[in-house]
Write a structure and sequence with these properties.
Helices cover 58% and strands 19% of the residues. The chain is an alpha+beta fold and 120 residues long. The radius of gyration is 18 Å and the shape is elongated.
Length: 120
């Protein structure tokens, strides 16, 4: 995640990169999505909780593959939590759904890989 401020005469410009998506915010509005600019530093705590738990579950159950899935989910959690066109409850529910799906994939892959390794 990158949120880099640039000052151009009278304009406040921010280059924001979350995952593989980049956007430019000028005077408080993203140019690509026309949504209001929200600083990355304003990511709510519940989003960071999803990030940490998703990464830990991925690492413990499925190693590097699970960690990669956790990183993909983390990009979704942060981007969703900064979205201002949905209510907070809706954003939390969306993150819960994605968290559940990613966690199931991580755990199933980890169990399958572990049982496959044990048969060798």
């Amino acid at each position: 995640m990158i949120d880099f401020p640039i000052r151009l005469k009278e304009k406040a410009v921010n280059v924001v990169v979350i995952g593989n998506k980049a956007d430019l915010a000028v005077d408080g509005v993203y140019l690509g999505s026309n949504q209001p600019y929200v600083p990355v530093s304003k990511v709510p705590g519940w989003s960071w909780a999803f990030v940490v738990v998703s990464l830990v579950i991925g690492w413990l159950f499925a190693g590097i593959f699970g960690l990669c899935l956790g990183i993909l989910g983390s990009m979704f959690y942060v981007k969703s939590s900064l979205s201002m066109h949905q209510t907070t409850n809706r954003r939390v529910v969306n993150c819960l759904i994605v968290f559940f799906i990613i966690s199931v994939i991580q755990i199933v892959f980890g169990i399958a890989a572990n049982s496959w390794i044990n048969t060798l």
